[in-house]
Structures are given as structure tokens and as C-alpha cells.
Amino acid sequence: MGDKSPKAVQKKTSQKSTKANAVTKKKLEAVAAKTAVTKKK
Length: 41
Prior knowledge:
This protein is mostly helical and 41 residues long. 85% of the residues lie in helices and 0% in strands.
């Protein structure tokens, strides 16, 4: 299963970065939601 071809490696790294970006985006949205709630008060 250990495919070391450049294409496979690139695909794996792009999936990793996509997942990391999704996590970062969720965190930013959570922070934005919190600040929006505190600003309304």
C-alpha cells in the first residue's frame, strides 16, 4: 500500500493541507461568531 510515486506523494500532501485549512477555517469562524455575539451586547 505504500505508494511512493511523486503523484501519490503530492496527492497525500494536498489532502493534508486541505484538512489543515478546514480546521483553521472552523477555528476562525468560531472566533468570529464569539466576537459577533459579544459586540451585540
